[in-house]
């Protein structure tokens, strides 16, 4: 399921659905809803396109549920019961159907990735727990996630951002305004060429992730393999080439909203993401790092995020020296 | 169409073998492989695919997961019903409708937290208000609202995709 953007009227219709199903609708809510419906013809049609099919999809089940009182939690319990087995199968899928094979040149890539303290000299950079937007000379903008760094190379015929560390979300201005030069984000594992677009890029140890939030772009791995990505699609690229990834771009860019969204992520990756928002050290045992995590976590309150993880996973989180050292076992 | 035929000729056997090695069930492997190719051939981006095997793998994984989810839900539903006294059990017709709808919701809301999907089911099938749902799931009222908004949003996206003819969630029976 992609994070395809919805139009404004549909977003408003979603808001009204939330209000009207609350179970405590006030007269003012009703009046507000009627006023919204009447305000523009587009509102009513957006409402009908969403609420109509939803009602017809659910109508049969609502009637069936009403005929069988006494088992209100049964369906919710069914979801919970199915969850554990499915989680395991999803993990199985990831491991076994994935394409293996590591191309040469990995060592070369790593050399650039580990250039000592390169990020301190970078043009754009963010510290621990900091997210920041930067306006670029051509009207494009980039937003850096916490503990990220990027260099700029802008001039006649060039619009290049080099990601040195972390993640960024780019909103590329159209090429026409800048002598037709394409907007390119480079990193050790390859590059992403925007075709007028909004996308997110994250640098990992072994490869990088790119997710298209709007329009399209072309991804080229360091080895030359290419893939064009459409809106809502994501891919990993690096020594293995370019491989479509099921991680939805909207999920991958949740940090922009201050959230970490984990849908079956290894705990190790979740902790990596939290580290960028936390001063001090977080040590995690390898067995704990392999656990799978589901849920949304608040990046701006990592204490709470850690507590939430400790609640749902079979781990022990211990905090030493006022949070300077955290161990997870 | 040449491209499509080439794609099928050079990768169909590979995909079936790959799935079979994993599934240990020939019929499932064949089904999933056929469905994968149907989806790929209907895709508008066929010409742009540079790594056909990676692309096929991605789609096959998604389908396989849909199939597994369907079975897991069926199994879990039967187990749950077994815990309740028989006089509360829905009729076979009602069971089928409820399961079908649960699968529809599980698919549209895939990736959302378990409690979000549970909240959506309690609200949209059982008609519970948010305060009752908050109590039942031990989450806050505002979290219920957020889960509901995200749930409706997923449904809206699924409907929009259906309208555009992209990856319409085909029903397996």
Explain this structure.
The complex is a heterodimer of chains A (329) and B (173). Chain A is α+β, with helices and mostly antiparallel strands and 329 residues long. Chain A folds into 3 domains: 8-67; 106-249, Sandwich (Jelly Rolls), CATH 2.60.120; 258-328, Phage tail protein beta-alpha-beta fold (3-Layer(bab) Sandwich). Chain A is 34% helix and 30% strand. In chain A, the strands form 4 sheets. In chain A, strands 1-4-5-7-8-11-12 form a 7-stranded mixed sheet, with no helix packed on it. In chain A, strands 2-3-6-9-10-13-14 form a 7-stranded antiparallel sheet. A 3-stranded mixed sheet of chain A has the order 16-19-18. In chain A, strand 7 (183-187) and strand 8 form a beta hairpin. By secondary structure, chain B is mostly helical. Chain B has 2 domains: 1-66; 90-173, Winged helix-like DNA-binding domain superfamily/Winged helix DNA-binding domain (Arc Repressor Mutant, subunit A), CATH 1.10.10.10. In chain B, 75% of the residues lie in helices and 0% in strands. Chain B has 7 helices and no strands. Chain B has helices at 2-23, 26-42, 52-82, 92-108, 114-124, 130-137, 141-163. In chain B, helix 1 runs antiparallel to helix 2 (26-42), helix 3 (52-82) packs across helix 4 (92-108) and helix 5 (114-124) packs across helix 6. Chains A and B meet through helix 1, helix 3, helix 4, strand 12 and strand 14 of A and helix 1, helix 3, helix 4, helix 5 and helix 6 of B.
Concise summary:
By secondary structure, chain A is an alpha+beta fold. Chain A has nine helices and 19 strands. In chain B, 37% of the residues are buried.
